[in-house]
Amino acid sequence: MAGARHVPDWLENSGIAVHTCTAEKPDVKAVSCASPRHEILEAIRWARQHLANGASPQEIAITAASPEEWDDHMLALTEAANLPIHFAHGRATLSTFDGQLAAALAEVLLRGFSRMRVTRLVALLRTHNQRYSSLPGNWWQQLPEEAPLLDAARWHRAIDAMPSEGYADSVDLRPLLHELIDTLSMGLVAADRIGELLMTGRALAIWQKALSQGPAEALDVSLSGLRVDDNLEPATSILWAPAQALAAVPRPLTWLVGLTSRSFPRRAGEDPLLPNHIVESSRLNSLPVHQADRRNFASIFAMTEKELVCSRARRDSEGRLNGVSPLYPRNIPETHLAQSREPEHAASATDRLFARPNEFTDLPIAKSARATWIDWHTGRITAHDGLIKSEHPLLLRALDRRQSASSLVKLLRDPLGYLWTYGFGWSEPEETDEPLKLDPLPFGNLLHEILQETVTRLEAARLGGLAKASEEQITLYVREAAREVAARWDDTHPVPPPVIWQRKCEEAIELAITALTHQQEPLPGQRSWAEIPFGGDQRAQEIDAETRQDLPWDPLAPVIIIGTGIAIGGAIDRLDLSSDNSQARVTDYKSGKFRGKPPQLKGGAELQRCLYAYAVKAQLADRPQVDTRLLYPRANGKVLKLEQPQATLAKLAVFLMAAVTAFKEGLALPGPAAQDAWYDLAFALPGGAKESYLDNKMPLVAQKLSAISPLWDED
């Protein structure tokens, strides 16, 4: 039964009876859409319109020569429209749960261990594999926060350090995690065995099929090319199928997608191994793809009973203009559909709201968005800029904490950022994968650890400490300390590849030697400490009682800035103290490059020296004379002293009190720090904030925060 389809010449003389019929005469329409996604959206709108008019799903089909190009759009819009659309060629495996589980396992085996990869795999295994369902959803919170966990040995150490109690039914889950890590560490050579141990059912079938189609090293490529059945019954669903499949089983209502010069018909290409100048392609393929597409188009055109819509996208997904297919009907008027048009039948609830602005504007979320946009562009400070109810509990809770130099900088220079950080608890996620380089912040932490370890060792060596150590001794101790710190970082921090990591360690060693051998007059009977905590800082709670007794003060005792009620804490990079406690020298190391003129408060951005000097005086009963300074090792030991520390602290206290008062009154507004090039919370500001929003609002913010804004202009 050929119907109205094309009958090949060889079949006529074969003796086989061929039954044909006259071609159908459907209502043909030509439609121009904005983009490939818009084509699918209009096709779904069209399908819903026919369903509303009484058509059955099994009468409707949407097709393309090669539907894979539109599959993502079709899948997303089908979910939103909640229509039964059957993918005749199957759905992409990676769009299913089982496919994602296989992909998560492949990622661990192909790219190695990491915190993110393993936690993602376990999250999927908890739903799929009954053995792992006992793991709590937050099991990963017991892992060390900064540990990179880039190999099996590190994972085993981290799991051993997890508490054995505190889980449901008091079951120790560490053996199960150890078993999982051991299974994954078998590697790609045992990919088949690993799949059998961790997966069952459809997920295991997907895994095994991917392994059968290529080597384990190409699992990601194999998985991305697999397709699975969507479990919908074709006889009761709208059909989304290749044109070749639809030509065999046509439907009365059909929408042809992608009638552009590139997509329908597709272009025939040469065989890369046997090009035309060696063997004619017609000898290898009797029906080239472009001829097959033309034949399928003719069959669909002749066999569609009621309506045939031919659509094309004016531009492709990247915005380039598309040519028109030679199969596109040109003898009928074309309907030009705008992407922003109001459809007769919306594809989904979201489509309806976007197409009907009057209906959308009555929703609370739309009213809120409109009010926010207006407030961002108005010439006054509003709630959407950071005005909050005075004495709001969230504001008071954000202030009720031990302050550090960095938190007070945020309070002075960016009250809104302070609220986001210490009120909402927003923070930048730590990098746990192996980086290709060591960024400035972790490099500074590395340098500080080497300096701390070196000073601690020199003071414990009973050779007169840092003050009497020769340059050769300091160099020796720095290198020994660097080896220990580097080994510790291998286990607790993500580090770059070995060659880059070794070079960065050498760079840190050179800077540490420069910092510790900088010419300076030792204090009488000098003792030195590095990274010495004060004010109950977290590091003070981690040191043992013996180490705590060796410090010049109780690191757990609170430190309050007189006249403000602000409690401060932290760790001083280095403290030199004379034997009679009458003289002290505070050094704050800066691993970056020195730029510009020597800063004092630097508009509120440089508070360490001032706060550390106050902490030393407040905690030592002898109230020593304190010399505070910044030291830049990259500038061959460039030293910047704080001038008039007592007067500077008094001035800073006034600004701090003004900042606390303004914050309590609800003035959590963006400050000058929001205009910094590397502002970490820029994602929460309005789009294009640095181009327009901040320029418009900062003069108004300065008026509202008039008691603080003079500080922003100071050196």
Automatic annotation (TrEMBL):
Taxonomy, superkingdom: Bacteria
Entries under SUPFAM superfamilies matching the protein: P-loop containing nucleoside triphosphate hydrolases
Residue stretches making up the PD-(D/E)XK endonuclease-like domain: 404-642
The entry's keywords: Plasmid
Listed InterPro entries: P-loop_NTPase, PDDEXK-like_dom_sf, PDDEXK_AddAB-type
Pfam families, sorted: PDDEXK_1 (PF12705)
Name by which UniProt lists this protein: PD-(D/E)XK endonuclease-like domain-containing protein
